[in-house]
Amino acid sequence: MSGVEFTEFVLGRSPALLRFAYLLTGDRHLAEDLTQEGLVRAHRRWSGIVSAEGPEPYVRKAILRQYLSWRRRRSFAERPVAEPPDAVAADATGRFDETDAMWSLLATLPRSQRAVMVLRYYEDLPDAEIARLLGCSASTVRVHAFHALQKLRAALATTREPAPAPGGQP
Amino acid sequence: MNTDDIEDRLREAMLLHAAEAPPGAAMLSTITTESARRGRRARLTSLSAGVAVLVSLGLALPFALRSGGPHGDDHVVAAPPAVAASPSPAPTLVPATVPAAITFPFTPSAAYGAPAVMLAGGHPTAMQRHAGGTATLTLLDARPAAPSSKTFATPSEVGGRPATLYEWHYSDDDPGLPYTDLQRTLVWQPTPTTWLTLRMTPTPPATDLVSYAGAVRPGALSSPSPFAFGLMPAGWTVDNISAAAVTFRPPGVEPGEGYDNKIAVMLDESPATEPPAGDVPAARVKVGQRTGWLTTTPDVQFLRVPTGDGHSLLLQVAPKASLPQDELIRFAAAITVSPAAEVSRG
């Protein structure tokens, strides 16, 4: 194993891996846990993964697998979000509020759907690559994406209040 | 809102919030240390298992190793299931003493919506959404220690009573953590025998903490338990009850909000009418009149029992909290899901 190579990989890529894990989990500590675990596993079989698919896909896959199956180390403080966030008033900061509402709504998605959202719209991966990472078919990825977008759209529609027209004009 | 619009909003939200990810500055040394520790453990496990087999059978058998994929640990001998790892004699099951409801004897301001009441780490706790975050009140029967060795303490006042404001960081006592955001905890004594702590996330100015605490009044809040338990292991303690989960900790396990070393009982989103998908096959077991699925791996055991309404009862058992299989099934068979239970998304 090349210690220098692994060190360079961690120093260079861990911020991106942490952002990826944070977008999946929405929790800073959990994101660190998952990333750290993925990197520990990569460290223990470094020479094998470097010569195969490369370390980054391996670690991302490890983070995803842990995220999708993770339960045993879940903190009691992590509670399910059963309802969409409270209505967001339309005002001068409406755009920012909607962005915040979207972030809250991501937490209401099942994990597989959230993973597809992150891989598609943050990582900009094609469905075939997402399918490979998730271990499912591309059509399953499309079904997850369809349901997730449908749910987000419906939830956002209910949180939007029509802004009153200035001066009472329509 | 059309699809393109919502996709743009998604990208925007994720780009914005990605910046909140932790920096991970001190991760490298933690990773290499943990990796080395696992290497030592794996070598010891292989050695002791090999010796045991040779002694008992008088011949060498090939060791089956777990898959080397990203979801598996390295070099772990596929040997005893989690249930065999219990260091102490198996407890007997006795009539359960889990309360039907959790009571919190104080009420925060009604201005921010109804608080959720729970038992967290053994302490009655009330959580309330507040200013885009969460305010958490915890009731203690002794003055809590300072949150970290580097805590900065400032005298304060709540409702005319002396209080202490602690300012600290998660990284104060953990060099493996990157420098973390400033945390504030307010502690005061509302009655001669009780203490309250208040924390808010994201961390607000100190004046906001004091203002919120000043609105806390005597008055009981209550939440029903999500499950009714007929039996529980003798000598064990319930240390967490929320709408989402109840945890049982065996003797010797410190109370805390985590699930490690405990049995956690949850209502799961899956119907569990078929064996769960995964690398480890599940065993079909009879739980009362229902058919459940028991999955055992070296570091956790899951028992899933359909509830008949599209969900399932899920018991997550850590190795230190293992029960013999027939006792675990008797324990599960005596659990009833209450209307207060919230479905967990895994």
| Main sheet properties of chain A | none
pLDDT below 50 for ≥5 consecutive residues: which ranges of chain A? Answer: 72-96, 163-170
Greatest interface by residues involved: A-B, 61 and 63 residues
How confident is the prediction overall: mean pLDDT of chain B? Answer: 79
Query: How many β-strand runs of chain B?
Result: 21
Total strands of chain A: 0
- The class by helix and strand makeup of chain B works out as alpha+beta
* Basic shape of chain B: globular
Number of discrete helical segments of chain A: 8
Radius of gyration of chain B: 24 Å
Low-confidence stretches of chain B: 43-87
What's a concise summary of this model?
The complex is a heterodimer of chains A (170) and B (346). Chain A is mainly alpha-helical.
How are the secondary structure elements laid out?
The complex is a heterodimer of chains A (170) and B (346).
Chain A: H1 3-25, H2 28-44, H3 46-51, H4 55-69, H5 94-106, H6 111-121, H7 127-134, H8 138-159
Helix pairs in contact in A: 1-2, 1-4, 2-4, 5-8, 6-8, 7-8
Chain B: H1 3-18, H2 27-57, E1 93-95, E2 101-107, E3 116-120, E4 123-130, E5 133-140, E6 152-158, E7 161-168, E8 183-191, E9 194-201, H3 206-214, E10 217-224, E11 227-229, E12 231-233, E13 237-241, E14 245-249, E15 263-268, E16 283-287, E17 290-297, E18 300-306, E19 312-317, H4 325-333, E20 335-337, E21 343-344
Parallel strand pairs in B: 15-21
Antiparallel strand pairs in B: 1-12, 2-10, 3-4, 4-5, 5-9, 6-7, 7-8, 8-9, 11-20, 13-14, 14-15, 15-19, 16-17, 17-18, 18-19
Account of the protein in words:
The complex is a heterodimer of chains A (170) and B (346). Chain A starts with a helix and ends in an 11-residue tail after the last helix. Chain A has helices spanning 3-25, 28-44, 46-51, 55-69, 94-106, 111-121, 127-134, 138-159. In chain A, helix 5 (94-106) packs across helix 8. Chain A has 170 residues and is an all-alpha fold. Chain B contains four helices and 21 strands. Chain B has helices at 3-18, 27-57, 206-214, 325-333; strands at 93-95, 101-107, 116-120, 123-130, 133-140, 152-158, 161-168, 183-191, 194-201, 217-224, 227-229, 231-233, 237-241, 245-249, 263-268, 283-287, 290-297, 300-306, 312-317, 335-337, 343-344. Chain B is globular. Chains A and B meet through helix 1, helix 2, helix 4, helix 5 and helix 6 of A and helix 1, helix 2 and strand 21 of B.
